[in-house]
Design brief:
The complex is a heterotetramer, with two copies of chain A (300 residues) and two copies of chain B (249 residues).
Chain A: E1 4-6, E2 9-11, E3 15-17, H1 26-29, E4 39-41, E5 58-61, E6 64-67, H2 76-88, E7 93-98, H3 103-114, E8 120-124, H4 141-154, E9 158-162, H5 170-179, E10 184-187, E11 191-194, E12 196-197, E13 202-203, E14 209-213, H6 218-231, E15 236-238, H7 245-253, E16 258-261, H8 264-267, H9 271-285
Parallel strand pairs in A: 3-4, 3-16, 4-7, 7-8, 8-9, 9-10, 10-15, 15-16
Antiparallel strand pairs in A: 1-2, 5-6, 6-14, 11-14, 12-13
Helix pairs in contact in A: 3-4, 4-5, 5-6, 7-9
Chain B: E1 6-17, E2 20-26, E3 36-40, E4 48-56, E5 59-65, H1 69-75, E6 82-89, H2 95-101, E7 104-110, H3 115-127, E8 132-139, H4 146-151, E9 155-160, E10 167-168, E11 182-186, H5 189-202, E12 205-209, E13 225-228, E14 231-234, E15 241-243
Parallel strand pairs in B: 7-8, 7-11, 8-9, 9-10, 11-12
Antiparallel strand pairs in B: 1-2, 1-6, 2-5, 3-4, 3-6, 4-5, 12-15, 13-14
Helix pairs in contact in B: 2-3
Classes of the chains: A alpha/beta (300), B alpha/beta (249).
The complex binds flavin-adenine dinucleotide (FAD) (2 copies), flavin mononucleotide (FMN) (2 copies) and FE2/S2 (inorganic) cluster (2 copies).
Pfam families (chains B, D): DHODB_Fe-S_bind, NAD_binding_1
Binding site for FAD (chains B, D): 48-51, 70-71
Subunit structure (chains B, D): Heterotetramer of 2 PyrK and 2 PyrD type B subunits.
């Protein structure tokens, strides 16, 4: 009743833990059997280990939060060596989220992931592109298209491209990424925001800007998912502010085949589990036999 | 571990001095000193990490300072209200090991960082009543938690910036690490850095409890990173108590 | 201590009521002396009267709201005849907010406003542009540039252009609008969002999308104001989710010369008054003699 | 008018029947029947418009149905809690004029729309005890506010969809507008439309209280527009009570 499939990869249910909010699955395993989730996206991985940003890394906003972790991660090799074996024991799909500051970075990371048994790659194109003066790959469709087609050419895994809501034109971005070979899309990553510490007269974050997530952004995320689903014919995974079963239903009715849960995990460590149960309950209550029936139900 | 955010009852919530509140909740989990709870304001997305100050008969006592939105909401709670808490979290002070290897212990607290040091001193004394504890508490002006810490200290020294109580100046003016086998410390980062430097000079062991903004509280999000000689550590999971020699300020 | 000036127009303080949230000043005058505000932006005006959208027009979101009023307004002529005389008695600056579905619409409206004694025109370029298939004027910089330069050519009033956060590139948009002659800029208008009614399996709004405002969008608005202020050398009026004095300070430290208060009026009918007082209090407490001192204090 | 959101005390908050709650607050403002308050949930941005059901000795009573987030929060309030309210708002029924021109009055309520009709009937009777009031209340299944309306009615008729009480069917099955000088009505839009159509046929005057989602509550934002023959009206300020002949459904 709850299973969905994305590009040949089967998910026992459409609820996936979002990258960067679920570590490599260890921590939340202390709270519930995370194998009940449809999948887990790893923390964003880069070819070399990254220390992440200095200064404050998190700031609460009304119904949301901003983070500036800066892709702190052990690097792809250590991930494969130390984290993946554990993740594979969890009994759910493992999605490797890959970041990079250059196309070569992405390529190297993907080559290594190719040789593992992760089910899917999620290509995070929100990373600052060192070669174009730090503007993220995910802003201009043509820049994104280049990296996606290069990665598609070498990827042996199903390739999901994770879009940034900061893209100049989300629909064009989606279209170009699919054109370049994306097997599926996920959206949204965090929305660029900022805060100012009025006592120090300085931005709160050392990097000035940070990424906004959580319930505050849900209306924006849902709108983008709806727009993108209307335009492309690959599976779309929706996320951004989902905290309950009804939110999942909204994203799926907008056209998403599956969803991811990010900030909600922080609001309640059992969020993933609860959301799976709530979604199932909603379907039962409303006489929906198969979750796939509601995908795109609100498109018109 | 079966803990999770759950609603529990407020048994007491009162202002102990200007802007400093004592909160007692119903809670049965056993807690190590230095561990904390995430307390979730009704209007917030993220829990507020607050250290345990005392545990007693299925209650947990916190002591918190009025800072911003969340603690303001806490300050308005009344007895009988419910509140969402999640804990205990973090490593805490390993009292058994500390007491095994150290007999002369300095317990140093600054400002609201004194809160976890109450339970720390208490648990040390409970583990081995023969250990010698000298507590050093520093405050800006108002002093609090003095009676509590005295109960568990063989000696107590106090400093205030304004000189309203005890020594006028910093608590670090009073501390001589050479006199101790170990120093246990919680307070503003700048104070802990000073304490660690003093301990390094005298070669005294020192454990400090770090304060970082948090989101998940369980080690999954990496927003609470503390840089250490051994690489990035998560304050919520690997800490908040770290070896002072390891932390890179 | 609180006065600022935008392009020759003096404001007794930098707090202005935002368009569409304050009617024409009547309603909130029942609650406090709205003459204590720095200014009032009129409800968005079009050359012809507009009935506005049908169906549901408002929907609450976490720390925000979406609206789909659809520019219901009496038309510029009726505004001048019935509303402006009253607004002029309020003892504060009157800013006429102008919308339109074509450049000719905007031009006609501005010609009429030219002949009145409003202090300023705020050109709302978020309106759907009928000639370009309904995409708003405020999305692509070049489209915006055209309308702004045409209006600048005929406007006898100080011209403030109100930017949409849905612009493809907010900095480029700001730059082009200034190039085209904008005397000042205000931002942000509402962020495009949507909601789905999971019981009816349909979008909540008849127009599918609606405009998100309120505290939820503040981090995004502040970021955009900061980015724009760094780039342009005309006064910028910041808005989006401001609900208290400290929020005002944040926007001004980001570089704004003044701010507008929208959704906050709904959360508290005295919001305008309270925010003026809170802002003044903050300055006093922090020993700031002149509010102008803090403008851009957090820029770096 | 000096009203504004302010915190007042909850004197009573109890479930009167499945999902229907009665809330009594401390409030001194004088209120017309059909007027409403905006009640602001702590976790919300927008107030919830709720009609006044009764006023008495500096208290105001509301009756509300559990619908979504806001009313769920309300349902959890206890006596002694504080709550932010703002009102009375809207035009309300003009009892003086109604009573001057009409002697035989039908008071029609559907579902939670019965709430404002209690005060309406009461105020009519208080204004002129000799007027004749026949109340028609319709519910899905559970009935509520029956005792209250009976106190102010010369006759009372009830319909339920399930037939659990009174007539099985719609309240409109029971109403014959010809028998009345005026019909006053609040309920689901579909029911009010039916009532208005019936009144048009018989040439009976009819006033209806409209329900639209609101933001400002004071007439400034235009999100609560009600289309009428005379153009767009604001339900919060020009209404919620409109001449049934004027409204375009
Ligand atoms: C392990 C640990 C133990 C703590 N123990 C105590 C204690 O026993 N008593 C006490 O009064 N305080 C303690 N603190 C600090 C306490 O968490 C903050 O004062 C509190 O979160 C402020 O919340 P607010 O909503 O009032 O402030 P706001 O400034 O409105 O908070 C906004 C956000 O920033 C975070 N934040 C703000 N200041 C701090 C801070 N100093 N440390 C961490 N996060 C912060 C908040 O959690 C929230 O997410 C502890 C912090 C940590 C990390
Ligand atoms: C003039 C007026 C008088 C009313 N009087 C009563 C009354 O006496 N008793 C009662 O139970 N209800 C009354 N209602 C309806 C009541 O306002 C809604 O049931 C309530 O707002 C639902 O809030 P919620 O947060 O539980 O629902 P949610 O669906 O979570 O609310 C989301 C948003 O939609 C709005 N909303 C949802 N349903 C309605 C609705 N039917 N009408 C208006 N806004 C809605 C909410 O105010 C909120 O802004 C009245 C409505 C109006 C306009
Ligand atoms: C603390 C934190 C760290 C994140 N790290 C990553 C990351 O490494 N890679 C990535 O693609 N997205 C990352 N994200 C974005 C989330 O995966 C998600 O796209 C975003 O938070 C929106 O979803 P939400 O509102 O459910 O949190 C991170 C988000 C947060 C809050
Ligand atoms: C109900 C409503 C109506 C609005 N109407 C207009 C309008 O007519 N013209 C305009 O330029 N902006 C309009 N806006 C946008 C606001 O002026 C403002 O830009 C936006 O709401 C963000 O500010 P806030 O978060 O403080 O509300 C409207 C906003 C709301 C909520
Ligand atoms: S708060 Fe998430 S890792 Fe520490
Ligand atoms: S709710 Fe704002 S005009 Fe009625």
């Amino acid at each position: 009743m709850m299973s969905v499939s994305i590009n040949g990869v089967d998910f026992k249910n459409p609820i996936i833990a979002a990258s960067g909010t679920f570590g490599f699955g260890h921590e939340y395993s202390e709270f519930y059997d995370v194998g009940m989730l449809g999948g887990i996206c790893s923390k964003g991985l880069t070819i070399e280990p990254k220390e992440g940003n200095s200064g404050i890394r998190v700031f609460e906003t009304p119904s949301g939060m901003m983070n500036s972790v800066g892709l702190q991660n052990p690097g792809v090799r250590k991930f494969i060596e130390n984290e993946l074996p554990y993740m594979k024991t969890l009994g759910t799909n493992v999605i490797a989220n890959i970041g990079g500051a250059s196309i070569e970075d992405y390529e190297k990371a993907v080559m290594l992931i190719n040789e593992t048994d992760v089910q899917m790659i999620e290509l995070n194109i929100s990373c600052p592109n060192v070669k174009s003066g730090g503007m993220a790959f995910g802003i201009k469709s043509d820049v994104a298209k280049e990296v996606v087609s290069k990665i598609k050419a070498i990827s042996k895994k199903s390739l999901m491209v994770k879009l940034s809501p900061n893209a100049e034109n989300i629909v064009d971005m989606a279209y170009k990424c699919v054109e370049a070979g994306a097997d599926s899309l996920s959206l949204i990553n965090t929305v660029q925001g900022m805060a100012i510490d009025v006592r120090n007269r300085k931005p709160v974050f050392e990097n000035t800007f940070a990424g906004l997530s959580g319930p505050a952004v849900k209306p924006i995320a849902l709108r983008m998912v709806y727009q993108v689903c209307k335009e492309v014919n690959v599976p779309v995974v929706g996320l951004g502010g989902i905290t309950c079963g009804e939110d999942v239903i909204e994203f799926m009715m907008a056209g998403a085949t599956a969803v991811q849960i990010g900030t909600a995990n922080f609001m309640n460590p059992l969020a993933g589990k609860n959301i799976v149960m709530e979604t199932e309950e909603f379907l039962k209550k409303n006489g929906v036999k198969d979750v796939k029936e509601i995908i795109g139900a609100a498109q018109r | 571990m079966s803990i999770n955010y759950y609603e529990t009852k407020v048994l007491e919530n009162s202002e102990v001095t200007n802007g400093i509140y004592k909160l007692v909740i119903e809670e049965k989990n056993s807690v190590k000193p230095g561990q904390f709870y995430m307390i979730l304001p009704k209007t917030a997305v993220l829990g507020r990490p607050i250290s345990v100050c005392k545990t007693e008969n299925d209650t947990v006592t916190f002591c918190y300072a009025l800072i911003g939105k969340g603690t303001k909401e806490f300050a308005n709670m009344k007895k009988g209200d419910t509140i969402k808490v999640f804990g205990p979290l973090g490593n805490g002070f390993d009292v058994e090991n500390i007491i095994k290897e150290n007999k002369k212990i300095a317990v140093v607290g600054g400002g609201i960082g004194t809160a976890p040091m109450i339970k720390t001193a208490e648990d040390l004394k409970n583990a081995d009543n023969s250990c010698y504890i000298h507590s050093f508490f520093g405050f800006r002006d108002d002093v609090y938690l003095e009676e509590e810490i005295k109960t568990y200290s063989d000696e107590y020294s106090c400093a205030t910036n304004t000189g309203s109580h005890g020594h006028k100046g910093f608590v670090t003016d009073l501390l001589n690490p050479e006199e101790f086998d170990i120093v246990l410390c919680c307070g503003p980062e700048i104070m802990m850095q000073k304490v660690v430097n003093m301990c390094k000079e005298s070669g005294t062991k020192v454990l400090i409890s770090m304060e970082k903004h948090m989101a998940c509280g369980v080690g999954a999000c990496l927003v609470c990173t503390c840089k250490t000689k051994g690489g990035n550590k998560r304050t919520c999971k690997d800490g908040p108590v770290f070896d002072g020699y390891e932390v890179e300020f």
